[in-house]
Amino acid sequence: MKCINKRLITFVTALLSIVSLSACGSSSYAIPYSPDSVYTSISSDMVDTFASDLCVVGSDITDGSISMSKNSCAGLFDLNKRETLFALNVNEQVDPASLTKIMTALVALKYGSLDQILTATKAVNINEAGAQLIGLKEGDTMTLDQALHILLIYSANDAGMLIADNIGGSVDAFVELMNEEAKEIGATKCHFTNPHGLTADDHYVTAYDMYLIFNAAMQYDEFQEIINMSTYSTVYSRADASTVEVNIKSTNGYLRGDRSAPSTITVIGGKTGTTNAAGHCLILLAKDSSGNPYIAVIMRAEDGDTLYSEMTALLEKITS
What we know:
The protein is α+β, with helices and mostly antiparallel strands. Helices cover 34% and strands 20% of the residues. Helix 3 runs antiparallel to helix 4, helix 4 runs antiparallel to helix 5 (157-168) and helix 5 packs across helix 6 (171-184).
């Protein structure tokens, strides 16, 4: 049954990408699309069943009210009114940078347990210049819960390798799970080759796929709690039984207080990503003054100032 559902999801996603659609389903933002809810035989209800659980976008949806760089990929989804408010280049395949870590967290939460002890191997040794690291060394140990906080709040690439190596049995096996789970939730235009998002060949997503992945991750309470945190402190162990104290701050400018959202909008949390290849990326869960939820995503912004000015303009669309 699972294999049949996977093939059906792939078929439906391909079908919907041909048709220009814009709709959001009736599910809560915390309940992602489930392949088990799709009919296992092709019928006239198939597309309606798929669209009832997801926002579906087949073409750009812009009205000139938002000034957005033509190079940016952006989407804004009203999850209660079942409406896509804005879409620009959302089906274009681009480098995701550290937005990759949302997929890593999703797989880890599905296949691991929060109290599971993770032990660092040589896999955590990342030598790429400028890579964000927490400083893990071979033999270090921490729980999956600690590693997920460090991964999502501080965006540490070595934490991504620690998680992948332990949860998957190897980094390569974990990446296979990432790609399998992406297809499971209908994100068929993406492909991952690592768990952290550092630039690599054949590693890409679309802004729409990031919406699907983020929406799926929201089913886990732990994920929702972590992305809402502006700071985090913990202690983990070295191989020699000494300890390392960690005090980190979010990379999200809205949570740090470096950037201001529109006055009627509350940014609940999200994930940033930045590399030379990907540009500047950000995906958010936000709520309006009535508590209605929205997912907003921008990828491939040319710099940090552009990213946040465009994201603020996108969030202002909620109040217009």
